Amino acid sequence: MTMAKMKACVLHNIRDLRVEQVDMPEVGPKQVLVRIHAAGICGSDVERVYTKGTYHYPTIIGHEFAGEVVDTGADAKRWLGKRVTVFPLVPCMKCEQCRIGNYAQCSHYNYYGSRCDGGFAEYLAVNAWNLLEIQDSISYREAAMFEPAAVAISALEQAGTLMGKSIVIFGIGAIGLIIAQVARGCGCKDIILVCRSREKKDFAMKIGFTDVVDSTEKNAGEYITQMLNGGTDIAVEGCGTSETLAGAIRVAAPSGTVVCLGNPKEDIWLPRDIYWEILRKQLVMKGTWNSTFGIRSNSWDIVQQLIERKILNLETLITGTYRFENAQKAFDDIFYRKKGQVNIKSMFMN
Fold first, then answer.
1. Quick check: pTM over 0.90?
2. Which helix (H) or strand (E) holds 328?
3. Are 196 and 244 in contact (CB under 8 A)?
4. How far apart are CA 203 and CA 20, in angstroms?
5. Which residues of the chain, if any, have pLDDT below 70?
């Protein structure tokens, strides 16, 4: 019997991405088959293609995706025909953190798009447990951005109360701009964004943020300290570099909170005087990774609520769309970005 085939973007090694025909996935009893309509390209996907690879080869990458359930296993029939997005982390459900509902801290997790096949394909079999049904008013493009939006929500949850607070965000890719939108909708009195390019500054101002600092043009630390009369209540580090972590610590007010969000590409080092600021200002340092998904806490549900309340506008952050067959061009456009071109969120549409 001949297996049915589908189109997929398959990573065979670093810098070896191929669009090819592969076998359709089989659906287990507690799984569903999702026909993928939209899939976002994360910065980590770009790193996987060009620099760091995945855990094994070949791998269908992609962990930000949404689509329609077109088939189900015997124990998941209620999902047939539903419009869904997918939490990409697959917890083991056996370790101590899973037992208390902290699934992002699972000791033995799997992950769609890096540790196992993901969403850059026409179809994917996923566990029904990982599904979130989306409202008809939400487009598949928006739904494919629930993953970075949920990461942003989880970061802000680490920061605590937002109403009346000041916040500085270092790094204004998709997640940074989502954090800014939510902070604005939740009553932050001052929102300052820090970036390193004229293009991103212009983009952020175009979508309504007025206090945007290009750190290649002016000293961000001096500007922020002066603007906020001594420092910010909340500083979010969204780049994963020594420079931006030091910058976040420097601009934090006494007793302020620094949220560490950015994925580091290399070791992070702090000068001694910056470390002293943590001590002398008695800062709260919080780390965040991934998002919450479960009964006890679910940042994905919050994303849907914020879209419905018009606090989040994810469509404004989509700066490029591609077909799967143009996958190499999509990645090249991001990695070899031309001068003047801004990429916030590129997406495959199927």
1. yes
2. helix 327-335
3. no
4. 35
5. 1-2
